[in-house]
Amino acid sequence: MRVLLAGGAGYIGSHTAVALLEAGHDIVVADNYANSSAEAIRRVEEITGKSVDLFEADVTNHEDMRRVFDAKPIDVVIHFAGLKAVGESVEKPVKYYRNNIDTTLTLLEVMAEKGVHNIVFSSSATVYGDENDVPYVETMKKGSCTNPYGWTKSMMEQIFTDAAKADPEMSVVLLRYFNPIGAHESGLIGEDPQGIPNNLMPYITQVAVGRRDHLTVFGDDYDTPDGTCRRDYIHVMDLAEGHVKAVEYAAEHKGTEIFNLGTGTPYSVLDIVKAFRKASGVEIKYEIGPRRAGDVQDCWADATKAEKVLGWTAKRGIEDMCRDAWNWQSKNPNGYRD
Ligand code: NAD
Ligand code: UFG
């Protein structure tokens, strides 16, 4: 099959590119490099020994996307393209709604024009809100999001669901990611946030290479064994392999299906600090700070549906995640700028 990765030069897209190529699929990547660089795809080519059709394209722009779809026939689209910084989305909500919703509408319009019916969407566990109890199951009602970024995901899920209801030819797979961390085992590709990292693991790895002085742990007074929040961290290559299964499923089924992509095992912030120290041998200096606004105490998946329906489970453990995150960061202390 030929798969279009919209926003495919980013962190999850570049790892999924490797997994798809290794599974024998062809890929096309379209990205405007709002939060990535073409270097990631050059390295995907280096890892796989295969060449990738790469387009600099804005997914909100119909002409750009027509050019991409006209180049080669596409069987399935994966929609990774979006802005994802939770804090920035609170400060600049209109920018987030404009970009994220527009990418979705433009993709759906151009797909309809070009007769492409299958799409896999990067959603997030954030759509469960804080009304539901862990572990989160796909059958739960979505909750209230705590920030505009989360709402864009919730709204885009609705847009895709409605589009599939109206068009019996359509296949929509909504993937709710938990917390992807780690990197490809080669250390050639990995997470390369611009500016100060928002997320835990890139912050830890930047402390480890000396780019940041210390980690601030956001709150140790939660109702958990060590007082810090618990999350379902998943190795990005496991997540990438989940996309291969989702793409193959989307090509064979009609209608909308939702899948959690997580491990089902929670770790606290301090568990991650300890696991990273063990994997890297580097001591991570940290201080306890106040809670971060909008954080939920607990977030982990019931991952049984993906196992039953897609035949997918996460295989890599927390040691692999920490080792591979460190391997990437220590080989590329300044990310793709090295
Ligand atoms: P990323 O920022 O590395 O990748 C997103 C890519 O989309 C980037 O390459 C960016 O340049 C591109 N992009 C943004 N707007 C675009 C536009 N208008 N046109 C073309 N390209 C555009 O982020 P990621 O971590 O790889 O996340 C991929 C997707 O998964 C995002 O939609 C994100 O919201 C979602 N997601 C990520 C996480 C996470 O923790 N990383 C969790 C849940 C969901
Ligand atoms: N944390 C710290 N210090 C930091 C960064 C994070 O203590 O410097 C803590 C957070 O408080 C949280 C945990 O580490 O308890 C994980 O935080 P992340 O920011 O790495 O991840 P989140 O669970 O907050 O957010 C992630 C994705 C979002 C998504 C959300 C819910 O980044 O895109 O999961 O699915 F919306």
How far apart are the first and last residues' alpha carbons, in Å? 34 Å
Tell me the quaternary state: single chain
Strand order of the largest sheet: 3-2-1-4-5-6-11
Summarize model confidence as the mean pLDDT.
98
**Count of extended strands:** 14
Associated small molecules:
nicotinamide-adenine-dinucleotide, uridine-5'-diphosphate-4-deoxy-4-fluoro-alpha-D-galactose
**CA-based gyration radius:** 19 Å
What does this structure look like?
With 338 residues, the protein is α/β, with parallel strands linked by helices. 41% of the residues lie in helices and 18% in strands. The protein is built from eleven helices and 14 strands. It has helices at residues 11-22, 38-48, 62-71, 86-91, 93-114, 148-166, 200-208, 236-252, 269-280, 304-310, 318-331; strands spanning 2-6, 26-31, 53-56, 76-79, 118-124, 171-177, 179-181, 215-218, 230-231, 233-235, 255-261, 267-268, 286-289, 298-299. The strands form four sheets. The chain has a seven-stranded parallel sheet, with helices on both faces. Strands 12-9-14 form a three-stranded mixed sheet. A two-stranded parallel sheet has the order 7-10. Strand 5 (118-124), helix 6 and strand 6 form a beta-alpha-beta unit. Helix 1 (11-22) runs parallel beside helix 2, helix 1 (11-22) packs across helix 8 and helix 9 (269-280) crosses helix 11. The two termini are 34 Å apart. The model has no long low-confidence stretch (mean pLDDT 98). It binds nicotinamide-adenine-dinucleotide and uridine-5'-diphosphate-4-deoxy-4-fluoro-alpha-D-galactose. Uridine-5'-diphosphate-4-deoxy-4-fluoro-alpha-D-galactose is lined by residues 84, 86, 124-126, 150, 179, 198-200, 203, 215-218, 229, 231, 269, 292, 295, 299.
